[in-house]
Design a protein that fits this description.
Elements (H helix, E strand, L loop, with lengths): L19 H6 L3 H55 L11 E4 L8 E14 L2 E16 L2 E12 L1
Antiparallel strand pairs: 1-2, 2-3, 3-4
Organism: Alishewanella aestuarii B11
Protein name: Type II secretory pathway component
Keywords: Membrane, Transmembrane, Transmembrane helix
């Protein structure tokens, strides 16, 4: 249709365009874009992994905290059976309990008891203040919860 030997005879819209200077300047830009995308993806992956690690640690502390709470509560209940026994004399003192059941394995309770005499009218009333600290350890995670209970005889 148009002779290739005379490009000037092409119509204006069909003139070939040459970009030799800009093509040389753009050389390697794909590599820069690829490195940028890799760096951004690496940053996203690192932040997500840090978030996952933080989330799993908080879950461990939450579970261990619940176990420590139940260990402290069990310590209080066992101390109440010593303060108000079905038979025999009441005893109020400190004790340490180590649990071996599946739910509280690795937990212990430190229980203290203090008897206080309170005058209530003409009758002396004894007030027992029980304090129990449940401590649970799993690997490097140590949690503790403290409960205080006051009962009157």
């Amino acid at each position: 249709m148009y002779p290739k030997s005379h490009p000037e005879s092409y119509p204006e819209s069909r003139q070939p365009t040459y970009y030799p200077a800009t093509a040389f300047k753009q050389r390697g830009s794909a590599l820069v874009i690829a490195v940028f995308i890799i760096v951004v993806m690496l940053a996203v992956i690192l932040s997500l992994s840090r978030l996952l690690l933080s989330s799993s640690e908080s879950l461990v502390y939450e579970v261990q905290g619940s176990r420590a709470f139940f260990a402290a509560q069990s310590g209080l209940e066992l101390a109440l059976t010593r303060v108000f026994p079905l038979t025999g004399a009441a005893s109020c003192g400190a004790q340490s309990l180590n649990f071996s059941d599946d739910g509280l394995r690795g937990c212990r309770a430190e229980v203290s008891c203090q008897a206080l005499s309170l005058p209530a009218g003409n009758v002396a009333t004894v007030l027992y203040q029980l304090s129990s600290t449940g401590i649970c350890q799993a690997d490097n995670f140590v949690t503790s919860r403290e409960l205080v209970l006051e009962v009157r005889q």
